[in-house]
Design goal:
Structural class: alpha+beta
Largest sheet: 6 strands, antiparallel
Shape: extended
Number of strands: 19
Strand content: 25-35%
Distance between the termini: 93 Å
Radius of gyration: 38 Å
Length: 499
């Protein structure tokens, strides 16, 4: 007989004393939970995939009831807009009569000018010169010798001492992955040559060739993945230690070195990578940047037919280099870089410009003309609501939204904001209280509706005659025919005109 109490005691003991078994149990329970949720979802979907007899009858009528007829068509465009006048009071009445369509939440409209803090040509020249000074050896402030990149050998230390804004990357570089403005010169160089400074993706860089070799641009390889407890993405049922995983991988390598033909069968049996394991471990062709570094380096630096064991964060891989293609020159580059950023003087100048604009706004009500006179781009943010996070054109700027709705802010209020990489001077241009949309905001929406209503009345007055032919003739148009129109058509598209 099953004893629930004993089972719970067993689980409690397992959780406290057997981490691997507890992890396996949790994995199993998660799988049971996921399966139950999936089954429930599928049953709900299946239950909803049906239709009543009445729905079938209705659908049949819609599809098969067809009508034909004749009509005279006089479009609204036949009446000039200048003949129709819409009063503000009429718009207000329409809004009142259709309240449900014009209910709005509290909102604010803003206009703003953004002052970007960008490096000037003078700033760039200084940064470029500072980077160039790191190529050759020099003396520091204490007259001690400081190695330049050309003579440096401890590159990590060089990058740290000179505050590089990019990390040291000594992976192999193909021509296509190097800035094309300098790639031709760099790939024509030899080990020890230094190139730059050159501008690349917002940095000034200098690059030193630390190694020149040949390498394929694509490799076809196979692998058998042996994970261990603690390795990345290891399945819950894996219980082997790192040492046991290494021993198993070495044993498999010994077997495939003796008989390469057994690789595919061993991959199917032992590999934790089930997707490719079912394919005999075949990873097909891949380029240099696709795989994790250790696996990548083994695959691209060894010849076709090479076998080996490689450790990665995912475990141990028994790797077979099956084929290579497009052998070409590749380089290892020690590339130092400094980001192109504005100087303190430039940032101060932009700050003063923003401050002066804010001061000028305080002395005028016509901020739009002021911005135009100064050739500033005035942008708008319309319909901001109290819980909004984003301001159009500025991204996540909750501080600006909060200010616009604060008790001190009203139409005409302005403020300067310090953002990342810019200053913004914002002005509240309109307030909308919760309730009905103001007439001013509804004009563009309501005017076409009322215009068409008045045009319809004018057109109706012209529909005089004892027959469609007389009405058509009086309005200088023709009688049209609609054939086999059903309820699925939203317009009379299948029509013919009759002179």
């Amino acid at each position: 007989m099953f004893d629930e109490g004993k089972f719970k005691t067993f689980l409690a003991d397992t959780k406290a004393n057997n981490e691997q078994m507890w992890a396996a149990w949790c994995g199993y329970m998660n799988q049971v939970k996921n399966n139950a949720e999936t089954n429930t979802y599928n049953k709900l979907v299946t239950a909803g995939l049906g239709a009543s007899l009445k729905e079938g009858e209705t659908e049949y009528l819609i599809e098969n009831t067809k009508l034909s007829g004749k009509f005279v068509y006089i479009p609204y465009s036949s009446i000039s807009d200048s003949l129709v006048k819409i009063k503000k009071s009429e718009i207000a009445s329409y809004i009142k009569d259709n309240e449900s369509q014009f209910k709005v939440e509290e909102a604010r409209d803003l206009s703003y000018v953004k002052f970007n803090i960008l490096a000037t040509p003078e700033d760039e020249a200084v940064i470029k010169q500072n980077v160039a000074s790191l190529i050759e050896d020099s003396l520091d402030r204490n007259n001690d010798k400081r190695l330049g990149l050309k003579n440096a050998t401890e590159y990590k230390e060089f990058f740290e001492e000179n505050n590089s804004d990019i990390n040291l990357d000594l992976g192999y570089k193909f021509n296509a992955s190097v800035n094309q403005t300098v790639a031709k010169d760099i790939f024509a160089g030899k080990e020890g040559d230094v190139f730059g400074p050159y501008k690349d993706q917002g940095y000034f860089k200098i690059s030193k060739i630390t190694e020149v070799t040949k390498m394929p641009d694509s490799v076809k390889a196979s692998h058998i993945l042996i994970p261990f407890v603690g390795s990345q993405a290891a399945p819950q049922d894996v219980t082997r230690t790192k040492e046991e995983a290494k021993k198993l991988a070495d044993s498999l390598l010994t077997v495939v070195k003796r008989r390469k033909s057994k690789f595919a069968d061993l991959a199917k049996e032992f590999s934790s990578d089930k997707v490719y394991g079912e394919k005999g471990g075949d990873l097909d062709w891949f380029n240099y940047n696709r795989m994790t570094p250790a696996f990548r380096d083994f695959s691209f630096t060894n010849k076709k037919g090479s076998l080996g064991v490689v450790e990665t964060p995912f475990g141990y891989h028994v790797v077979s280099v099956d084929d290579t293609k497009n052998n070409q020159t590749v380089l290892k580059l020690a590339t130092y870089g400094k980001q192109i950023v504005p100087s303190e003087a430039t940032e101060n100048a932009v700050f003063q410009e923003a401050e002066q604009f804010a001061l000028a706004i305080s002395k005028t009500d016509d901020y739009a003309t002021l911005a135009k006179d100064k050739n500033y781009s005035l942008r708008s943010a319309v319909g901001l609501q109290v819980l909004d996070e984003n301001v159009p054109g500025l991204g996540n700027q909750r501080q600006i939204v909060s200010w616009a709705f604060s008790g001190d802010s009203e139409v005409g209020s302005f403020k300067r904001f310090d953002l990342e990489g810019s200053y913004v001077v914002a002005v509240v241009t309109a307030e909308t209280e919760k309730g009905l949309m103001p007439v001013e905001k509804a004009i563009n929406r309501v005017r076409p509706i009322l215009t068409n209503k008045k045009k319809a009345a004018l057109i109706s007055e012209k529909l005089n005659g004892s027959s469609l032919d007389e009405i058509a003739k009086a309005n200088n148009t023709t009688v049209r025919t609609a054939t086999n129109v059903d309820l699925k058509n939203s317009s009379l598209s299948r029509c013919r005109s009759r002179a």
